[in-house]
Amino acid sequence: VKFAALSVALLAGSASAFTAPSTVNRAGSVSLSAEKSKSLPFLNRPALLDGSMAGDVGFDPLGLSNIDDVGIDLYWLREAELKHCRLCMLAIVGFIWPEIFGPAPGCEAATDPCQTDAFWQIWNSHPQYIAFGFIMVMLIEAFSGIATTTGRETGFREPGDFGFDPLGFKKGGDEKYAKLKEQEVANGRLAMWAAAGALLQGCTTHEGALQNLSHAL
pTM value? Predict the structure, then answer.
């Protein structure tokens, strides 16, 4: 009886020894066949970037989409990206428009084509404009923060959706609206680079954005 029990134990141990390598091989094959990122085909696609969001091409080399333990998750990151996209699209228009058409009414003191220098001209002549701008920024940020927090908790709000659609883009159908969202993200990302370049060049060359562009051309 003891010999039979010992034989069964040895056979069980032998079987388990042969089972482990097959598990490792299966895991290895799954890893090798994992879907690759569209933007970085030499890296695997981030788990949470499944292409369901507009503009998602699997670009996340720093792994930011996997952060969820410091109060930041993919919802929060998407909200931040859309906010900066929209802000920078307005900002780059604000850089170029006065350089072509001149300062806005009430801002005649801002004559410098370089908008980083024109800011200080307004600061010196009408500091109340700057103060009003800062107050509006705080109010908008408070409203945006409440909307973001509520959306994360309830799941009823898509990131960046404030129900603001005066031109009725949503009425054009789901397919057309999805294309518009793709275009918003694509142009917003380009605008972030453009605004950063305009700010950097304005602070270093003290020339307008179009002036700097003309030098490059």
Answer: 0.77
